[in-house]
Write a structure and sequence with these properties.
Blueprint (H helix, E strand, L loop, with lengths): L9 H12 L22 H9 L1 H6 L21 H4 L6 H4 L11 H9 L1 H6 L2 E4 L5 E4 L6 H19 L32 H20 L12 H8 L6 E9 L2 E11 L8 H10 L7 H15 E3 L6 H8 L7 H6 L13 E3 L1 H13 L7 E5 L8 E6 L4 E3 L26 E3 H7 L14 H10 L2 H13 L7 H6 L5 H6 L2 H12 L1 H7 L13
Parallel strand pairs: 5-6
Antiparallel strand pairs: 1-2, 3-4, 7-8, 8-9, 9-10
Helix pairs in contact: 8-9, 18-22
Length: 528
């Protein structure tokens, strides 16, 4: 397979080589945990810390609209123009001769001419009839692609100015038609023709640029590293390209085609993803808070799918014979077998969740990097989204919906959504990047760490069961829950059983538990 970018500069090629070398486990965070002194003259550390400052956020009026539905306001972006000084691009000053944002693209071309690193990140992987791939940055695009981008940039600008309510062009089919007919037992894939992938990619890029140039969010593409820009603007972040060939253990008949195919989920246009974020009131004044809000939505709405990763099961959950469509993950679907009684936002496990976050957050220009976990000598089988701009990630994609412990508790809102995020230090400690053979045990560990702190209902049930059976600390289910991470002595030093007893005495878990089970020991009285 052939790959080239024509006359890209030597500096660009060197950077690409450096990025490729950082795709392994030793570079899950692009910044390696450190912020640079400045990026294009902007003190990135100071800006991000400012955005995350609790005192700063409390000083703003965001709390006043926390429970409001933003589409009902004149424009969500007006909430942060003043405190963050985030204004639309001043094209009147910088673009001589431009009459305004129209389908001709004068303002767009003017802005792109001023920002070479953004143009270079807009990489389209072009596939010919033989499956050869040529990578083309914006300067190498065809006239059709540039013209279509300009038209869509105009349309998305108008859409954003209308508070994302009236899109002035026919909507794209969502999800797109799968170009491959697949058998029930085959591995799912969404096969796209070139024109399908091209218009979906160009609409996402046009929207990203409209958000940036119009100042519709309080952060800027100009503050990002090259690889973060490519997470948002390169077609490779949406689709693989070239020749596809795959078999599945349940169906050895190979699936082959030439074209484009997304990974794990089928992307949507921004008229789906951005509208979802606005309608659910998830766009906040910083990356950190926007991510936390999306985590909260996921915790309340997403469910891990059932069964295997085969075409028949994809259709069973998402009514689509390919990768789960982002649109149907948002809207929810009725599982067919066994028949479900309510719509549910099914997630295809940690893989689907990680890529779902990538596709949704790209619509507000927040890059997400799905990574493979754990880091072990023999590889791993899990995935997690990394939020590179805030140096945070999940210990497992499934942490979003909490797996074992994310159930109602007597403690209101016992898990603040941002508590699921781990930092670079925990990443290095839990997923030893030198090849810790036990790193796989730490997949999803953050949920258990939270459980140790808040003692959720499920853990209280296990405690009551241990009491009913007369189990010692080392024999019971409470310890078995945490034995991958801690010894009995370490848990005792954390006063785990003492805190369980105190919570039981306060809320009366065990009498209630024993009353509705057959495990009530006759030697114990309900009387105080």
């Amino acid at each position: 397979m052939e790959s080239s970018r024509g006359s890209l500069t030597e500096e660009k090629s060197d950077r690409q080589s450096a990025l490729a070398s950082r795709e392994g486990p030793n570079a899950i965070f692009p910044r390696d945990g450190l912020y640079p002194a400045a990026v294009e003259g902007v003190d990135l550390r100071a800006e991000i810390e400012y955005q995350r400052s609790e005192d700063t956020l409390n000083d703003h009026a965001y709390a006043l609209v926390e429970n409001d539905r933003l589409p009902g306001l004149l424009g969500w972006w007006t909430l942060w123009n003043q405190p963050f000084n985030r204004q639309p691009f001043d094209w009147q000053t910088h673009c001589n001769g431009a009459a305004g944002i129209d389908t001709g693209g004068a303002v767009l071309n003017c802005w792109l001419s001023m920002h070479a690193k953004v143009r270079e990140a807009m990489i389209w992987q072009d596939v010919d009839m033989y499956g050869n791939v040529t990578e083309q940055d914006y300067d190498q695009w065809s006239a059709f692609m540039k013209d279509y981008l300009a038209v869509m940039f105009h349309h998305y600008t108008l859409w954003l100015e209308s508070s994302a309510t009236q899109f002035p062009a026919p909507p794209l089919p969502d999800p797109p038609a799968n170009q491959k007919t697949l058998q029930d037992g085959q591995a799912p894939v969404t096969a796209l023709q070139k024109i399908q992938a091209q218009v979906l990619y160009l609409q996402n890029v046009a929207h990203s640029l409209a958000v940036e140039i119009g100042g519709f969010v309080p952060w800027s593409l100009l503050h990002y590293y090259d690889d973060e820009l490519e997470m948002l603007l390169a077609s490779e972040s949406m689709f693989n390209a070239g020749e596809y060939a795959s078999t599945h253990v349940n169906n050895p008949v190979p699936v082959t085609f030439t074209g484009y195919w997304p990974r794990e989920v089928t992307p949507s246009p921004p008229t789906t993803t951005f509208a979802f974020l606005v309608e659910e009131n998830l766009v906040r004044p910083s990356h950190y808070d926007t991510i936390a809000r999306l985590l909260k939505w996921g915790r309340e709405n997403m469910y891990h799918y059932h069964g295997g990763s085969v075409v028949e099961n994809m259709e069973n959950h998402w009514h689509y014979r390919g990768h789960p469509p982002v649109e149907r993950m948002i809207e929810g679907t009725l599982r067919q077998d066994p028949a479900a009684s309510k719509l549910q936002s099914w997630a295809r496990g940690c893989h689907g969740t990680s890529f779902f976050f990538r596709e949704v957050l790209r619509s507000v220009n927040i890059p997400v990097k799905p990574v493979w976990l754990p880091v072990t000598p023999n590889g791993g089988g899990h995935r997690s989204p990394v939020f590179t701009t805030i140096d945070r990630m999940l210990s497992h994609g499934d942490d979003v919906y909490g797996v074992r412990f994310n159930i109602p508790s007597v403690d209101p809102d016992y898990i603040e959504p941002d508590r699921l995020l781990i930092d670079h230090t925990k990443l290095l400690y839990w997923f030893n990047l030198s090849g810790n053979p036990d790193a796989g045990k730490n997949v999803g560990r953050q949920v258990y760490e939270i459980a140790l702190d808040v003692l959720p209902d499920k853990l209280m049930e296990l405690y009551c069961e241990d009491l009913a059976k007369g189990m010692s600390h080392g024999q019971g289910e409470v310890y078995a829950t945490f034995d991958s991470f801690y010894t009995v002595s370490e848990l005792e030093a954390m006063s785990l059983w003492q805190r369980l007893a105190t919570k039981n005495a306060t809320y009366g878990y065990c009498p209630t538990y024993f009353q509705f089970t057959d495990k009530w020991p006759l030697s114990i009285s309900l009387e105080p």
